[in-house]
Amino acid sequence: MKKLSVWLLTSLVAVLIVGCAGQKAPAEAAIANAESAIAPIRDAARTYVPDQMQAVDAQLNSLKDSLAKGDYAAVIAGAPALNTAISSLKDAAAAKQADAEAAIAKAKDAWAGMSTDVPKMVDAIQSRVDVLSKSHHLPKGVTKDSLASAKSGLDTMKTGWSDASSAATSGDFTTAMSKAQAVKDQATQIMQSLGMTSS
Amino acid sequence: MADDKTPAPAAAADNPYTQTHVVVSGDTLSKIAQKYYGDAALYTKIFQANRDVLSDPNKISPGQKLRIP
Known about the structure:
The structure holds 2 protein chains of 2 kinds.
Chain A: H1 2-38, H2 42-48, H3 50-68, H4 72-134, H5 144-169, H6 173-193
Helix pairs in contact in A: 1-3, 1-4, 2-3, 2-4, 3-4, 4-5, 4-6, 5-6
Chain B: H1 10-13, E1 19-22, H2 29-37, H3 43-49, E2 65-68
Antiparallel strand pairs in B: 1-2
């Protein structure tokens, strides 16, 4: 009876050892597959969904810890959830990237029109300011203050436009459009203050 | 005036944001200058900006669309 017990115990230990050893390869493969799946999307994910990237990395590191401790069963059990998270990460990063690229393309298109319009508005204002500066009297509706404001506004607009152009040159069309819109709004306001509406 | 001999800048002629005035009966460049600049003496600025359609500052016609620089 004692011999039988020893034999059973030995057999059980052997089965467990063989069983664990049998789980090692699938566990290592699960980690390797997860890392391979993350690698090509890591940069985009860091840029567009950094929090989600961080969460997936935490999941991956947890399973790697389990692997290092020889807890292969935990790795295998956790792998499906990690794979699902990686899949969601990939989809979210792709969606955010598509949104960002669409916004950039839209800003780039808008910049084309803005880069034509705004300098012409500034030129028209400069021309009117130059003429009014030579006038002995100002026309009805135009005050000395509005003329002075237009003169100082021209400097602000030229600086703003320079900044917008620099942003566009560097490829940052979103910033370029934001700055250009500010210049355009100011130009519109100055044109109104100088009575520059066609009869 | 030296300004009178200066041709209108092409940029101003092509500029859609340059204000325009449609001439009506009784208008003169001086009256138009008075309206837009507060100074009739600045009519030459309007004449120079419209040299492509005006050959004589004293001859403008109703319906003409003039640029007001």
